C-alpha cells in the first residue's frame, strides 16, 4: 500500500532507527510493472529476526496519507510477486543483498520425488508459526526453510502453502495424519506432492 511517489528515503524514515535495513537503500526492493510504474509493493531485507519483528509492529501505520500493510515474507514469496509483475527474469537486476537469498537460477526444489505436501484451505490469517503448530511432531521432518506460503495476485496469503519434507515417506505420513485436521476454525486439506508440482505453483502456475 505504498504511495506511488514513495522514495527509498521515505521507506527508511517510516521504518525508523529501531528497524535498520541491511545496507540501507540497497536493502529495499520496489516492485514495478514492466513499464516501470510502481505497484505500491516493496520488500525490505533485515539482518536479523528482531529487526523484522520491530518492523511488523508498524503494520497499518501511516506513510504519507496511506495505511501501510506489513507482512513477513520468504525468498519464495518475493519471487512469486516479482514473477507476477515482471515480464523478464529478475535475478540479474535484484539488489545485491537479495541475491544470496534467492540463488540464480531460482529453484526451490526439483524432480518428481513426492517429498512435499500441499496445504489447502488455510485461514488467511495463518502464518508459518500456525503451520508448524498444525504439523505437530512432524515439524522435525521439515527441511530447513521448507515452508512456503502461496500468495494471490495482491501478494497476500491465498490459503495454500507447500512444505518440503525430508523424504517422500515423511510426506506421505504427514498427508495421512493431517488431512482434514482443524486449524483455527477451518478444515485444512493436506496432499502429498512433488517438488516439481510445488515449483510450478510457486512460480505462478495453478
Automatic annotation (TrEMBL):
InterPro entries per record: ESRP, Nucleotide-bd_a/b_plait_sf, RBD_domain_sf, RRM_dom
Any GO MF annotation of the entry: RNA binding
Annotated ranges, domain RRM: 1-71, 116-191
- Per its UniProt record, what Gene3D superfamilies does this chain match? 3.30.70.330
Q: Which portions of this protein are annotated as coiled-coil regions?
A: none
Keywords assigned: Repeat, RNA-binding
- SUPFAM superfamilies to which the protein is assigned, alphabetical: RNA-binding domain, RBD
Q: Which SMART domains does the UniProt record give?
A: RRM
What is the designated name of this protein?
RRM domain-containing protein
Amino acid at each position: 500500500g505504498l504511495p506511488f511517489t514513495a522514495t527509498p528515503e521515505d521507506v527508511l524514515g517510516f521504518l525508523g532507527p529501531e528497524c535498520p535495513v541491511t545496507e540501507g537503500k540497497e536493502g529495499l526492493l520496489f516492485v514495478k510493472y514492466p513499464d516501470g510504474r510502481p505497484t505500491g509493493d516493496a520488500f525490505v531485507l533485515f539482518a536479523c529476526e528482531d529487526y523484522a519483528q520491530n518492523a511488523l509492529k508498524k503494520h497499518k501505520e501511516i506513510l504519507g496519507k496511506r495505511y501501510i500493510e506489513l507482512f513477513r515474507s520468504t525468498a519464495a514469496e518475493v519471487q512469486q510477486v516479482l514473477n507476477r509483475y515482471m515480464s523478464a527474469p529478475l535475478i540479474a537486476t535484484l539488489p545485491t543483498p537479495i541475491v544470496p537469498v534467492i540463488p540464480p537460477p531460482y529453484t526451490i526444489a526439483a524432480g518428481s520425488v513426492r517429498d512435499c505436501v500441499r496445504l489447502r484451505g488455510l485461514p488467511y490469517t495463518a502464518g508459518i508459526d500456525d503451520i508448524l503448530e498444525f504439523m505437530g511432531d512432524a515439524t522435525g521432518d521439515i527441511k530447513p526453510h521448507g515452508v512456503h506460503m502461496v500468495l494471490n495476485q495482491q501478494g497476500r496469503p491465498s490459503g495454500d502453502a507447500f512444505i518440503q519434507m525430508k523424504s517422500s515417506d515423511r510426506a506421505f505420513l504427514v498427508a495421512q495424519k493431517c488431512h482434514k485436521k482443524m486449524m483455527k476454525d477451518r478444515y485444512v486439506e493436506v496432499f502429498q506432492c512433488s517438488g516439481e508440482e510445488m515449483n510450478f505453483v510457486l512460480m505462478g502456475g495453478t
